[in-house]
What does this fold into?
Amino acid sequence: MSVQYSSDELMDYDEVMERFDVVLGLEVHVELGTRSKMWCGCSTEFGGEPNTHTCPVCLGLPGSLPVVNKKAVESAIRIGLSLGCEIAPWCRFARKQYFYPDMPKNYQISQYDEPIAFDGLVELEVDGTGYEVPIERAHMEEDAGKSLHVGGATGRIQGSDHSLMDYNRAGVPLVEIVTKPIRGTGTKGPQVARAYMAHLRDMVRALGVSQGRMEQGQLRCDANVSLMPKGTTELGTRTETKNVNSLRSVEAALQYEICRQGAVLAGGGRVKQETRMWNEAGGFTTAGRSKEQAEDYRYFPEPDLVPIAPSREWIEQLRAGLPEMPAVKRARLQSEWSFSDLEMRDVNGTEGALDLIESTVAAGCAPAAARKWWLTELARAANERGVLLEDLPIAPAQVAEVQRLVEAGTINDKLARTVLEAVLAGEGSPERIVEERGLAVVSDEGALSAAVDAAIEANPDVAEKIRGGKTQAAGALIGAVMKRMGGRADARRVRELIIAKLS
Amino acid sequence: MNRDICTATALELGRRIRTGELTSVETTRAFLDRIEAVEPAVHAFLSVDGERALAQAAAIDALVAAGDPLPSPLAGVPVAVKDLLCYEGLPTTAASRMLEGWVPPYNSTVVQRLLDAGLVILGKTNLDEFATGSSTESSAFGPTHNPWDLDRVPGGSGGGSAAALAAFETPLAIGTDTGGSIRQPASMTGTVGVKPTYGAVSRFGIIAMASSLDQAGPCARTVADAAALHAVIAGHDPADSTSLDEPVPDVVAAADSADVAGMRIGVVAQLGGEGYAAGVEQRFGESVELLRAAGAEIVEVSCPHFTQALATYYLIMPSELSSNLARYDAMRYGLRVGDDGTNSAEAVMRLSRGAGFGAELKRRIILGTYALSAGYYDAYYGSAQKMRTLIARDFAAAFEQVDVLVSPVAPTTAFKLGERVGDPLAMYAGDLCTLPANLAGVAAGSFPAGLAPEDGLPVGFQVMAPVLGDDRVYRVGAALEGLAGTADLCGQVPDLPVEGSGEAAK
Amino acid sequence: MALTPQDVSRLAELARIELTPAELAEIAPQLDVILEAVASVGQVADQDIPPSSHAVPLTNVMRDDERRDSWPAEAMLRGAPAQGQQRFRVPRIIDDSDAG
It folds into this structure.
């Protein structure tokens, strides 16, 4: 792919913060993990050969009709309840009409002025400060197909010669969550947006309605931002940035747009109301379609579907079945695990860490040790591989097993790292790795004693210091013993031997 | 024409096939011959599926020969299907260039039920393009001619199904009715056509025109035949969200009983008078008197908002139509024009739709696009929906007083081909009696009331009943059929010019 | 209110229908006549009447989340005007997507 550069002028972020207030608006699409599509029985599974998850209904063939997936409605209500929304006692679907080849009917079945859930609130914490994200609505709709652009620059729509359409995604259920304007975020706007996305991701996972994997498009964010000069109250012109596919890029894209808009306004210019695309590789946004002329979607109630009127009993039943919400869960686990705020912040700041630590603890590991392994050794491994923690080929139970081996004195911390690496390399269970690689620490006192003697003999100065009472110098001798033993010694026992021999 | 077969009722054919007096293959062949002979003059069919029809017929004959039970009283009886219903393996065109040659990969629920009941599908009948019209003249493949007078229209949009019945090309047909497309052609051809309660017959697999108004129903020459066909196609379908999960009213028993004694019948004050042809008024009045004489109580009922039905309909229908027809964009199926390697997808959509849709369709799509567009929604579509509520309330109030409502089906008898083509409003005005039933979703049927004295053309009598009161429609229709003696009205259809295998004119 | 050929042209663009100048000139006055004839429904625009979007009131018609076999891709592609790589081939797309 050719690398693109941006020629946008940017204002320094701190300077923007001094001169402007930021107003954010986030539109998030959650792809629901139902078994079947929104209107038909076709599979929602990701991937699959092109057009193999299609039927007359999701291809919009003449005469076909949609029938609502009850699980999708249930998921939308549960999402609404988790966002603190009211649930509409009666609502309809509506057709949003525009022509585009990825949309088989040339209208998207969505909801217009009667969303299933509305008026919610999400409370977040960023760097110890609380923020509120007011929720406008959550509504149900359907996904579109995927296009493959042929000719022109690789895979780009611009300059392509023709496109090839795969409708496997067409009709997959979505819930769109729209915030009201988010104000009062001070200098933390982009971080609040990121925290909000992380919250939604954790929430949909806790609900089990979606895996919430941003890189697979299961959670998509359109980030709106506008600036208004400090002291004014009139909303500025906003831009909407699309293609924001990770937590990091939500923050980065907003920060970029804020700096870009700041420069435009400071230069006496006018921010154009437009859609912008986030360029992940380049770390900048580019202008998309101008939205100066409002689209005329010609919404009207979908006559092929009847209204949804969730009964009080149904809603209360769904409410009663809601899982513990992420923030509540985090607070509970922090207290159960006796983590400091600082320790907990690291856990919360690492995608997937909380659940992995929880599972590791459940497998018998001490919380501090579980935290240590996941946030140091394994976080590094995930980073190197460019994957999420949860995608590492190691199970929480295996991490717990490694820690058990450490606590039993079978291996030391250093050997434990070797074992973890071997597990990641697919060598099998920790126990087997220890056995096959002969990694267990040497407990043969004779061999150990001989190694200590040799080390004392080779380092007479150090030995003298220790004899003189400077036991902290023992470290140098321990290192020497370890070297002789190929690392396979229990450092504590070595230390004991050294002190005993030199006192 | 094999009179013995072609002029028999469907139920009679079914009985003879069941008892072995007649084979389904013979029956089917007789109709296929008749089609071949008169089609050049009538043009009721867009496609004929002879080979498969004969195979279906042979399968029924095999059941009879083996002494196995038949799936329905109409097993082995041929039927023609409006070319708006998907039937696997046969082109389904909606009489539009846009879908010329498109073969659906699946069956509509109605077609599936016909097949499951052992009916033999002869082919697909002509209609106004995408069912948008009242004369079958907007068919991209040429108009259908009214067998009563080949210079006249058979009504529309289901003119093909109605004309095929009147020309004895089929004993049964399926129609669809969005604003009168079953009833008005029935009226103009002296046949029977019923628009069931909205939701009684599945819309799945029927090319949508206006989703909240469309309803498929039976077409036949006798009330009992129509009822038998109704019983085959009606019933809940989970594939159609608007399908009613309720028992189908016993329309067959109602048609059998034909008893109106003690029934309260309301004559709609707003549907008659000025603008109605003398012969239409006369036959309507006589029919009412016959029903009164048979023991029905006749009352005049006012439905004040029916006068707004035309305006309401001509906003709701184009709006839904414009949306339903958006999918015909040349991307996944259908006509594609202008794909020369330089035109964009958007341009190809525009060119294909420009070339694939006829004038009336374009007019309605643009009207619907306008009615739904920002700034006009409240004045047009939104208001039409409120008016729709008022029309439904008129029905509700009327059905507090009476069991059924009656009116003429159309203000005139069949008009001349070409007479109203350039004048959309005159064409639309012909629908004003039939529209209220679609807007309110109630059941309604058209039954022959005889011929208008001034032109000798058939006049229809409309019976409307509440939601799921379809049986009442048949009860009254059957009573009138008996009283007016119209069961074999089509026997008076003049001889048609025939072509081909030396078959004698009827 | 009279619809000009320009208005009709804009509507035709929204509806993705290519109209010839002759068609534009013909349709505009026809639509005017029709709009005049249907304008009477506007009398209830401000009245508090529940609008009917459906003929028969039903609610909560839903299906269980059960997977059913999809159709063979070739059956779905059979009617396609053009295809390639088991996909529907369409002319180049002008980038004005706003999915979602």
Q: What stands out?
A: Chain B has a mean pLDDT of 96. The CA atoms of residues 328 and 334 of chain B lie 7 Å apart. The domain at 3-306+389-492 of chain B is CATH 3.90.1300.10 (Amidase signature (AS) enzymes).
